[in-house]
Structures are given as structure tokens and as C-alpha cells.
Amino acid sequence: MAIYDISHPLHPSLACWPGDTPYDFTLNWKRGEGSVVNVGAVTMSVHAGTHTDAPFHFLEDGATVDSLDLHPYMGPAVVIDVEGREHIGRKEIEGHDLSRTPRVLLRTNAWTDPATFPTQIPVMDESLPYFLKEAGVVLVGVDVPSVDSMQSKHLPIHHALAACNIGILESLYLREVPPGVYELVALPLKLAGADGAPVRAILRT
Q1: Which active-site residues does the annotation give?
Q2: Fewest C-beta atoms under 10 Å: which of 71, 106, 114, 166?
Q3: Distances in whole angstroms, Cα of residue 156 to Cα of each of 39, 74, 122, 124
Q4: Cβ–Cβ contacts within 10 Å for residue 110, how many?
Q5: Is the dihedral of CA 9, 68, 146, 100 positive or negative?
Q6: Mean pLDDT throughout 82-97?
């Protein structure tokens, strides 16, 4: 059984959304300075690194991350190579039996330098979430910081996925993962009232 860690490591050089809270780790208690244990503290956005978006992120009355159904975050998944596409539509997805793999991870390889936040990323056609819903998809993951364009003010893909009851994973690390079928485990932290949460996402054959 092969295991692929598809989470970005959290460290200060990992780019976050401009203006958002970057990741920072501070060791407040240190054994080297006389403490019995090392104890650290973390400051970060809940959207730093590999994470899920809860509907509350973009809907005033949307579900918060602690109330999300965990079923979409565990189970059969397919990694689909869409490298080189500016727009991802039905034709990139057709041919895959999504009834067997209702979690779809799109490998764009468009975010090449995690220390630099991208200004342009591939995006899904606005009709794609509805096609995915009809195919039984319960979760979509992307290897870029958003399912919407960097310039979007209305987040149509976020809203469409929520309307289709499809979970969202963003900022996956799929560069070393061959396209194919896997088992996904990507459980979000149970942060009460939060609009998103980090995940430790893995794929296993």
C-alpha cells in the first residue's frame, strides 16, 4: 500500500491569501531554557495551506466547519490530470466512472511555487458543479488556493458547489501523485464556529 501525503507543510514561507493571517509557530516553553517540556503556539488563518472551506466562509447562514458531514472527506477518490487547461469543464471529467470515485481531485500543477501566491489559476466552468452532482460527486479538491478565480468577488463556483452539497478542498499537493483511483482521508479539524479548517490530507492505493 502506497501513501501519498497531499498536504502542504505549514511554515512561515508558505504564501497565504494577501491580507490574511500567515502561519507562525512560536515555542513559548523550551526545555533548553529550563522548562519540563517544549510547548508551542500557532497563529494562522484557517485557510492557510491545505484546508476545507465550510459554507459559512461565503454564506451568512452557511454551515460552520464543526457541523460538516465527514463522509465526503473519506473514501474512494480519483485524481484527474487537467494540467494546461485554463478552464475545466465536463469534457475533462467525462470518461471517469465517478459512481466508483465520488471524490474528484483536479491536478492542475498550476501553483509551482508555494512561497508565492498565484495571480492566475485554472477554474471550473460554472456548469461543472451541477454535472458533478448528477454524477454523484460529494467532494471536489484542487491543488490551487481557490476553486474560484483570484479576481472573483462573487465566488460562483463556491456557491454552486454548496448548492450541490459538494465539499471543497483547496491547496492540495498533487504534483507527485499519478492520476488514478485512491482512497482519500482528509478530515478537517473540529473548530467550533469556524468558516474553514486545515486538513492533513492523504491518498492511499
Answers
A1: 57
A2: 71
A3: 42, 25, 14, 10
A4: 18
A5: positive
A6: 94
User: Residue 70 and residue 148: Cα distance in Å, rounded?
Assistant: 23
The domains found in the chain, sorted by start residue, are 46-204 (3.50.30.50)
Computed from CA positions of residues 38, 39, 45, 48, in that sequence, does the dihedral angle turn out positive or negative? positive
Residues in the chain: 205
| Assigned C-alpha cell, 81 | 490530470
Q: Which of 89, 71, 99 is nearest to 131 (CA)?
A: 89
**What pLDDT, in 10s, does the model give residues 111-142?**
999 999 999 999 999 999 999 999 999 999 99
Pairing of strands 167-170, 51-53: antiparallel
b/e code 63-92 from CB counts within 10 Å (16+ = b): ebbeebeeebbeeebbbbbbeebeebeeeb
By the 8 A CB rule, do 197 and 1 touch? no
For residue 181, the model assigns a pLDDT of 97
Q: Would the pTM count as exceeding 0.90? A: yes
Pairing mode of beta strands 51-53, 139-142: unpaired
Please work out, in degrees rounded to the nearest 5, the angle formed at the alpha carbon of residue 195 by the alpha carbons of 120 and 69: 105
Strand pairing class (180-185; 167-170)? unpaired
Phi, psi of 142 (to 5 degrees): -130, 155
